[in-house]
C-alpha cells in the first residue's frame, strides 16, 4: 500500500555547510512529486534526510501522517524504496539473487518465497527473460530496471528516485522513464529527483523547485513550467529546456 509523505521545516548542516534551509515537501499517497533544481541545491541530501540516512537538525518527516523520526531507521528504510544513479548491483550474483536478497534477509522470506517475489517483480520491469543472467550481461537500462525491481521487491510504501537515468546512455533513458511512469500511474507514491523536464512535466502531480537548500517554488507542472513566478526558476528553466 502506498503512503503519503510530508516533511516540514527540515534543516540540516553538514560540516560548515547549511545544506537544507527549511524544506517543506509533500507527496499524496499514490502520487508523484518531482524535485528539480541546479546541481548542489540539496536534492540528494533531502532524500537522505527523508529516509534518515541523515538526521535533520530541525523539522519532521511524516509517513502516512506519523512521524518517522522515532522509528527504527532500518525498519523505515524498508518502507521506502530507493533507486540511485548508479545501480550498485552485486556483480557475482544473478539478477534474481540480487532482487531476492532483500526479501530474504530483511522480510524473512524463505528462499523459494523470495525467488517468487523477485521473479514477479522482474516480470513487472520487463526482464522475465534475464532472471538467471549476471548484471554484467545487461545494458545500463536493464541494470537500472533490476535495481528498480530490487526496490519494489521490498514492497515499499514510497519510492525515491535520485537521478535514476543520469548515468544511462541516451538511447536507454526512455525505457527507464517509461517504467517509472508506469509505476506512477499504477499508484506508487514517488519522489523523483530528475533533470528530465519532460518526465517532470507529464508524469508528476506536483513539482518542487529547489535552489540553495530551499524550496523556491512548488505547484502543479503547468504552474511551474508555464508560469514560473520567480526569476530563479525562470533562469533555471531557460538553461534546461
Ligand atoms: P544535489 O543533489 O542537489 O546536487 P547535494 O544534496 O548532493 O545536491 O548537495 C548539496 C550541498 O551539500 C552541496 O553544496 C554539497 O557540497 C553539500 N554536501 C553534501 N554532502 C556533504 C557533506 N557530507 N559534507 C559537507 N557538505 C556536503
Ligand atoms: Mg544529487
UniProtKB/TrEMBL annotation:
GO MF entries: ATP binding
Pfam families: ABC_tran
Keyword ATP-binding recorded: yes
Bilayer disposition of the protein: Peripheral membrane protein
Family of the protein in this entry: Belongs to the ABC transporter superfamily.
InterPro entries listed in its UniProt record: AAA+_ATPase (IPR003593), ABC_ATPase_HisP-typ (IPR030679), ABC_transporter-like_ATP-bd (IPR003439), ABC_transporter-like_CS (IPR017871), MetN_ABC_transporter-like (IPR050086)
Signal sequence annotation: none
Residue ranges the record marks as coiled coil: none
Keywords assigned by UniProt, alphabetized: Amino-acid transport, ATP-binding, Cell membrane, Membrane, Nucleotide-binding, Transport
Keyword Electron transport: no
Matches recorded under PROSITE patterns: ABC_TRANSPORTER_1, ABC_TRANSPORTER_2
Locations listed in the record: Cell membrane
PANTHER family: AMINO ACID IMPORT ATP-BINDING PROTEIN, GLUTAMATE_ASPARTATE IMPORT ATP-BINDING PROTEIN GLTL
Main location: membrane
Domain ABC transporter: 5-237
Organism: Nocardia iowensis
Record-given protein name: Amino acid ABC transporter ATP-binding protein
Amino acid at each position: 500500500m502506498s503512503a503519503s509523505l510530508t516533511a516540514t521545516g527540515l534543516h540540516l548542516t553538514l560540516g560548515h555547510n547549511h545544506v537544507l534551509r527549511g524544506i517543506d515537501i509533500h507527496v499524496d499517497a499514490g502520487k508523484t512529486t518531482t524535485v528539480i533544481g541546479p546541481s548542489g541545491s540539496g536534492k540528494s541530501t533531502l532524500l537522505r534526510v527523508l529516509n534518515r540516512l541523515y538526521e535533520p537538525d530541525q523539522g519532521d518527516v511524516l509517513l502516512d501522517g506519523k512521524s518517522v523520526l522515532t522509528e527504527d531507521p532500518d525498519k523505515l528504510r524498508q518502507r521506502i524504496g530507493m533507486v540511485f544513479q548508479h545501480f550498485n548491483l552485486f556483480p557475482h550474483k544473478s539478477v534474481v539473487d540480487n532482487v531476492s536478497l532483500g526479501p530474504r534477509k530483511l522480510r524473512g522470506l524463505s528462499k523459494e518465497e523470495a525467488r517468487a517475489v523477485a521473479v514477479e517483480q522482474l516480470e513487472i520491469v520487463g526482464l522475465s527473460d534475464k532472471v538467471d543472467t549476471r548484471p554484467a550481461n545487461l545494458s545500463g537500462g536493464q541494470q537500472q530496471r533490476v535495481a528498480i525491481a530490487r526496490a519494489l521487491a521490498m514492497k515499499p510504501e514510497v519510492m525515491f528516485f535520485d537521478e535514476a537515468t543520469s548515468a544511462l546512455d541516451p538511447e536507454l533513458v526512455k525505457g527507464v522513464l517509461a517504467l517509472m511512469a508506469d509505476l506512477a500511474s499504477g499508484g506508487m507514491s514517488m519522489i523523483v529527483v530528475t533533470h528530465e523536464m519532460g518526465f517532470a512535466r507529464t508524469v508528476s502531480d506536483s513539482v518542487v523547485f529547489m535552489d540553495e537548500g530551499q524550496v523556491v517554488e512548488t505547484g502543479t507542472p503547468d504552474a511551474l513550467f508555464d508560469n514560473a513566478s520567480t526569476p530563479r526558476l525562470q533562469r533555471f528553466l531557460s538553461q534546461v529546456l
